[in-house]
Amino acid sequence: VQEGYDAYEQGMKQDLFIKDISGGSYLGQVWPGPTYFPDFLHPQAQDYWTTQLKAFWNMCEPDGIWIDMNEVSNFCNSDGRGQVCTNSAPNGCPA
Known about the structure:
Layout: H1 6-13, E1 27-30, E2 33-36, H2 45-60
Antiparallel strand pairs: 1-2
């Protein structure tokens, strides 16, 4: 969840992120900070990932890619039923 970051901006533009119970994007917390999770069942999800990976390839031509946090994890949903995260520090971890 970082304005100006292409993966975030494109995901928002395509309405690609998982929704919370109120219809907004579900905010989670993982080691890099606040995050929205792509909805892998969204009809545009494959094109979104292809575009993001091509852009990364064009930037540095890696020999391979290890996508860390390739499973959906959330470090702040304490009771398994509701969202307790807030984006109180958009440039770092929530306080």
